[in-house]
Structures are given as structure tokens and as C-alpha cells.
Amino acid sequence: MSNQLKDTANQPNIDVKDYLYKVLAYWKLFLVTIVIGLIIAKFMNGYMQKIYSLNTVISVKEENNPLFSTGTNIAFNWGGASDELETVKVTLTSRTHNEIVVKRLQFYVEYLKEGRFRLADVYGYTPFKVALNVKKPQLYGKLISLEITGENTYKISTEFNESGNNKIITYNSNTIENYSTNSSYYSEEFNVKDSIKTNFLNFKIDKIGTFTIGEKYFIRFGNFDGTVKANKGISVNTVTKAASLLVLQKEGTNKNRIVDYLNTTVQVLDSIKQVQKIEYAVKTEAYIDTLFKEETIKLKEIEENLGNYRESNNIFDLSTEGSSFYEETIQLERDRKELQNYNDYLVGLRTYLRSNNSFNKDKLVPATIVLQDPKIVDLINKYVAKSAFREQMRKSVKDIHPEVKKITSELNIIKNNLLENISSLLRLNSNKLRKINVNLASYKSKLKRLPRKEQGLITFQRDYELSEANYNYLKQKKYEAGTAIAANVSDVKIVDTAKDLGEGPLYPKPSFNYMVALMLGIVFPLLYIIVRELLDSKIHTAEEIQNNYAIPVLGVVGRNSTKNNLAVFERPKSSVSESFRALRSNIQFLFKNTDQNKSKTLILTSSVSGEGKTMISINMATVFALSGKKTILVGLDLRKPKIYDDFDLSNDVGIVNYLINQKTLDEVKIATKIPNLDVILSGPIPPNPSELLLNDAADKMFTQLKKDYDYVIIDTPPVGLVSDALELFKYSDAVIYVIRQNYTEKGMMKMIDDKYKNKEVTNISYVLNDFSIKSKYGYGYGYGYGYGYGYGYGKYGYGYHENEVKEGFFSKLMNIFKLKK
Length: 821
Known about the structure:
Layout: H1 2-10, H2 16-24, H3 27-47, E1 52-60, H4 80-92, H5 95-105, E2 109-114, E3 119-121, E4 128-132, E5 138-139, E6 144-148, E7 153-159, E8 165-170, E9 175-180, E10 185-191, E11 195-197, E12 202-207, E13 216-221, H6 224-231, E14 235-239, E15 242-252, H7 255-313, H8 320-355, H9 374-393, H10 402-447, H11 452-486, E16 492-496, H12 510-535, H13 542-548, E17 553-558, H14 567-570, H15 575-586, E18 600-606, H16 613-626, E19 631-635, H17 643-646, H18 655-659, H19 665-668, E20 669-671, E21 677-680, H20 689-693, H21 696-708, E22 711-715, H22 724-728, E23 734-740, H23 750-757, E24 764-771, H24 785-788, H25 809-817
Parallel strand pairs: 17-24, 18-22, 18-23, 19-21, 19-22, 23-24
Antiparallel strand pairs: 1-15, 1-16, 2-3, 2-13, 4-12, 5-8, 6-7, 6-13, 7-10, 8-9, 11-12, 14-15, 20-21
């Protein structure tokens, strides 16, 4: 449990403040990406096609004239209350309906004007309107320039295809044909009073506004079917909590087009619904009119025959007995006629239902009678409504569509119910007819007892009475049908017309785009920083070393800008030199267990090559030597020697020669140009460097050097690559482990850190080399090691250090995006 707590305590904590400083360090990157994002948003707001959305609200509710009842069967309900809205929805989105709207508005004529980024649709904004001759051909798909040349004049011009083959379209028949011409260009001036009549253009310009001379427009004649397809995507939805209200919504780039299309589609719908609603009444009126004419002729014939019979037989009135018989028989005849009419209509309706699987208004015979059973009237209404709705749907979808299959099933149920009711009513009427015929037979036998002349008069009067009653009935029905047509009430009511009220575009939304640009301008740099942090495995600050490793940090050394590693000697007043003096002071803490009067040995090592270990070795030796201490620098990196090059020396003779007994110690020592500083180079690269360092000669050498010098500085190989340095630790009083900013991997020091924790290595400290305060990771590092050891005082160090070479503006700009190496 204690080990777990210890491990938890040793885990690095996330420093929110440190990460915040890192993010703020990229403020220039944020600024650039935000500015670029806003510029792109501004461009897109201007470049992207603006899409507008307008709507209209209508009410679709069955409206019948209260003067008529459904039982008259003159004003049939074509739609039904339950399916009215669905029928309207299908109608509004159907191809047939939208073809009517497009033809009425002539939307296949495009009105265009040169815009900033594209040709803009200026329908409704032009001072003219094209009046097409739809029976004549028009040049298809080509831009036709219309330039205003005067108060009432304009010039038409267009270019033909180079091949000479062009297309012309005739909208009345919706046909496209080829048109060949030898000319490549057409131009002609017209007056608004003139009609353009050519082989490829046939229209007139109607002036509806003020002409501005020099203003230029374009017109283009498009594809009829394509225009219908582009405009039939109107959205039709039911208003919530108002089942009889529909919202018609349309999107487009031109508000005037949207307004005209929505309002016109409602007008066309209203016209269609009115025609559908009175269609049965119109047919009934025509049917009744035919019967009425026939009955009129028949009534005149009977009236003439009755008059002739009276005159020729000199009998004008019936006897009392004859009148009584006449009244009784005429009522029976009327009842029989009415029942026969019922049965004839029911038989015709049954035949129609059995022989037809779909509704056909042309085959269904209108009823001229009031049906006995209101249930049959209701079923007929439902059957007609659903059948009409199904036929309307089948124009848009196939028979296997679930809605079509559902309605077909409902129609079969209604048909079966109708047939059952018709059969029951026919049986009932047949029984009534038999009774009436029996009564008529008994009265006819009684009539035979009257004189022959009176019997003939009764027959003629009966025929005249029945014909006159039928004539008056048909006359009434003809009047009702005509009145129903004239007094028809529309089912479609406009609640809210489509109108341009200055609405902004649905897309693009400038404020939204600017907000997105701002967010992306922040998110992209953040993602870049996060990804860089996740992929970054380098050491950047002394705090990282302190928080993750047990070995303490001795100090930091700034970036060396000199041409060689003799920074302290060649530029003693530089900030880098000051940082080495700070290290010289701090290293005394590592020597606290060493006799101050005795020689001190300092070993410098690192994880891998390239971390600046040799540079630190040379300059540490230099600061000790310049302080008046007799110092020697020993190059024990036998595999990759470097020291000789900085002192302009040859590496032909060195410590290797001494270790193999070729040279004495004095023979391999070399005095440098730096006072109090001698150097022993590594010499030729040996085949067995590790074995050389383990022999007795190495022990004798270090014993002698400690006697001769105050400080012995040893430059060793990297401990992460070879074990030579670890073998040399036994000669040291202190060890400096060099870490290079933005170069050393975070896990490289684990091995040496574990040895320190296990007390296998003591008196060791880290030095952060090549430190830059301008690093993205250095802003949180200040008043500790960096500032405390004389490096990076900024403006407060002015005059104390030599001025460093400053980066130019271009270099700084490039460094914003440059990954630190």
C-alpha cells in the first residue's frame, strides 16, 4: 500500500498553468489562423449563392353549399374529409400540377444579369418581361444578350455554335429540334412595339419599367421538363394542431420566383379543386338536360294525343267513379315508377362495381333520384373519394407502394359493403313492386267496368300526369345542378399568401460563418498544439526534469552563437559565459564533501551524442582556468573525439598513447592559449577503448593529475551508448549529466536516474544545455534556474552582457510555424 502511494506521488502532475502558458505562446499562430478564417468567411459570404425560403399557408376543408344535401347526388364530395389533405399533398408535388404552374409562369425563361461572381437570376427585377410565342421555336440553351439602347429600344445579340449546329425548342409541343446556320453571330435592334420573328427567336418584349440606356441583361430558354423537375420539390407539411392547414414552403435563389410560384401553385390547386368538385354536377346537369329534352317532347306528344282524344270522343271530364279510380291508380303508378328508377340505378351501380376495379368518373352514371338508403350514399362518397385519391397517387408511385396497397384494400371492403347493401335494397324493392303490381291489377279490373271512352280518357290522363310529374322533377334537378355549379364554394382558402418581407437568406448566414471561422481559427491551432504535445518526446524546460527525475538540476546554459565551443574565452561578457560562471558557483555544492584544498575531478557525460557535452566540458574547464585555478581537460571520448578541433590541435597523440605506454603523461599534455588550462586529447581511436580505461595506467594517470592540477575536467562518452563513462565515475568528485533542450528524449535519463535512486551514483546533477528563453516551453521558466544563474535577464541585463545577434523579422515569422529541433 505504501509503495502504491509512493508511486502515485511520484507520478507527474498536469500543470494547467504551464499548459496555458504554452498555448498563449502561440498567440501569433492563433492570430494568423483567425484572420485567415475571417477572410475566408467574408469571401464565402459574398461568393456563395444565397438561398432564400418563403412559405404560404392554406386551409383545405370541405365546403358544401348549405342549400343542397349529399343525398341529391348532384354535388358529390370528390375527396372526402379524411383524405382531402393527402390528396392535396400528392397533387401539389405531382408532375402534372407543376407542369401547369410552369406553363402559366413560363419559368423556363431565365432572366440573368452579370454579377460579381456569376450570372445572377434577376427574375422580377427587370424593366421588361418576355412574352413568348409558345407555338414557335426559340433558341435553346444559349445566352441571349439584351442591351437597352434607348427609351423604348433594345438590341438582341447571341453567338451560335462554331459547328453551325444549334438547338431550338417549341414549348407548345415540348419538342427540341436541330437548327443549322452559317452565321456565328446574330445582332439586331428592336422597338418594344415590335415582335421578334426569326427562325430561332419568336417573342415580344413587354416594357414594365423604366429603361436605362446601356444596361445589359441576358435571357435564356431552358428545358421545360428540367424546369418542372427543378420546381416540383416544394415542401408541403401539415400545421401542428391544425389538421386542415397546410404550409407550402419553397427554397430558391430569387425571392420573386418563389413568391410567384407559391401563389400560382395555390391558384392552380384552387382551380383544379373547383373543377373536381363540380365535375359530377356538370355531368349530372348534362345527363339531366338530355332526359329533360326527351321528356319535353314526350309530354307534348301525350298532351296532343289527350286533346285529340277529348275532341274526337267528345269527353272532357271523368265521372265521379272514374275520378276515384284514377286517383288511386295514379298514386300506385307513381310509386311503381319511383321503385323502378331506384332498381334501375342500383342495378347499373352494381354492374359498374362488379366490372370495374378502379374509379372512372366517365363510366359512372349520375343519379337523378334521391337514394332511399343514406348508408349507400355515404359508401358511394367514400368509394369515389378513395378511388380518386388512389388514381392520383398512382401517377407518382407504383401499385406495390404500401399506401396504394392500403387504399386498394380499403376500396375492396367498401365495394363489398356497397354490393351487400345494394342486394338487400333490390330485394326489398322487388317485394314492394310485387305488392304494387297486385294492387294495380285489381284496380285495372275495376276500371274495365267503366265506359270504354272513359277508360281511354283515364289512360291518356294517367300517361300525361306521369310524364308531367317526371318533367317537373327533371326541371327541378336541372335547376339544382346549375345552381350547384354556379354557387360552388372552394375547398382551398388562402390563410397567408407568399410575400417577400425582407427575410435574410437561409444560406449562407454571415454571422454563423464568422462564428465558425472564429471557432476554427482557435480549434486548428489548439489541435496543432495538442498533437505536437502528444507526439513531443523532447525535454524543454528544467521544470520537466525536476518533475520527472530524482537527480537535481544544477543550472542551464544558453544557446552558443559563437563559431566554435570556446564561448567563455572568446566572448567573456556574453550571457552564455555568465551561465557557465553560475554553474561554477553552483558546482561547489557538489564538492561540499570534498576537501576544498584538494584537487577536484569533474566528469561530464550525456545520454547520446550531440547534446553539447564537449562544449560544456571545454567551457567549464575555461571558467575554472580563468578564475586562476590550474585546470586540465581530459578527452576520454575515445570513440568520437572532438576537443582537438576547437583548440586547433592535431589528434595524432593523446591519452591512448599514454595508456598503451607509448608516451609519458607529460608528453601527452598540451598547453592551450587559455591561461591555466592544459588539455589531454584522446589520440588515435583504439580498437578496445573500454579495456584501455580499465588498466592500471588509468589509475596512475588520475592520481598524478590530481596532484598536478586544482581541477580535472573529464569529457566522457555518452552513457546511453557505451559503458565507458560509468567506469570513469569512480575517479570523479562530481558528475554533470548534460541534457539539451528540444533534443534529448524524455526517457533517455531513466537508466542514470535509477542508479541515482539506488545510490549507485552520487554527486550527480543535470545541466540543461542550449536553453532558449524564447522557446514555446520556456516562458514558465524564469526566476529559478534560468534567471538565477545569470542567463536571460532580458532588458534588465542591458549593458552587462554583450549584445547577441537578433533575428530579423522574416526569421521570426518563419519560426512561428517552425518545429524546434
